[in-house]
Amino acid sequence: MNAKIILASSSEIRQKLFRNAGIPVITDPANIDENSIKLSLEKENKSHDEIVQILSDYKGINKANKWSDNIIISCDQILSFKGKILSKPKDIESAKKNLKNLSGSKHFLITASTIIENKNIVWRHLSKSEMFMRKLNDVQISSYINEVGSKCLSSVGGYMIEEQGIKLFNKINGDYFSILGIPLIEIINFLYEKNMIK
C-alpha cells in the first residue's frame, strides 16, 4: 500500500510520539474554527463526549479532499471540569487561575480520534481519563509556572504530565498516550491491520 499517513494536527507531542514509534507521518494541521464550533455545539446541548468527537471528525474531514488517497488521522481533546469545558489558557495568569480551580479536585481529559480513508470516516476512538490533582497552594502553582514558562499555554489544563506537570497529580486513571492527546496503541493496531506499518 502506497498511501501515506497524514496527521491533521499541529501538536508537537503527537508528532513526537509517532517519531518515537518509528512511524513516518506527514503533518498537515486542520484549519477549522474550533472555538466557534465548540460554542455552537454547547448551545445545542451536546455532551462533552459528542463535542470532542465531532471536533476530531471535522479536523480530519477538513483534509479529506487534499489527501483523498491517503490515511488521515485527526484528534481532539477537551478538559471537562464540573460540567464545563476548560480551554487552553490564553496567558500565564489564566494558566495560574486554571490550576487554582483544578487544585484538589478531579477532572476528566476526554480524547477523541478519527481515521479517514477515501474521504470516509472508517475508525473512531474515544477515551476518558480521570485526573486527580493534588491540593496546591499559590506558591506551588507559581513555582510550577515559573519552571515551565509559556509551555503551559499549549495544554488545556496548563500542565504536561510528560514533563514537570506530573508533580501536580496524586492519582491518574487512564491511558497515558490518550492523556498526551492520542490513543497511540489503538491507532498502531489499526495501521498494522492496514499493513501500513511493519
Task: Report on the architecture of this protein.
Helices cover 36% and strands 25% of the residues. By secondary structure, it is of the alpha/beta class. It has a single domain, classed as Alpha-Beta Complex (Maf protein), CATH 3.90.950. Strand 5 and strand 6 form a beta hairpin. Helix 4 crosses helix 5. The longest helix has 15 residues.
CATH topology: Maf protein
Distance between the termini: 12 Å
- The SSE order reads EHEHHEEHEEHEHH
Binned strand content: 25-35%
Query: What proportion of the residues is helical, as a percent range?
Result: 25-40%
Specify the overall morphology. Answer: globular
Mean pLDDT: 95
Uncertain segments are none
CATH architecture: Alpha-Beta Complex
Number of strands: 7
Number of helices: 7
Radius of gyration: 17 Å
CATH class designation? Alpha Beta
Total count of domains: 1
Category by helix and strand content: alpha/beta
* Main sheet record: 7 strands, mixed
Task: Describe the structure using short key phrases.
198 residues, alpha/beta, Maf protein, 7-stranded mixed β-sheet, 7 helices, globular
Provide a concise account of the structure shown.
The protein has helices spanning 12-20, 34-43, 48-62, 92-102, 138-148, 176-180, 184-193; strands at 5-7, 26-27, 71-81, 84-86, 106-117, 120-133, 169-173.
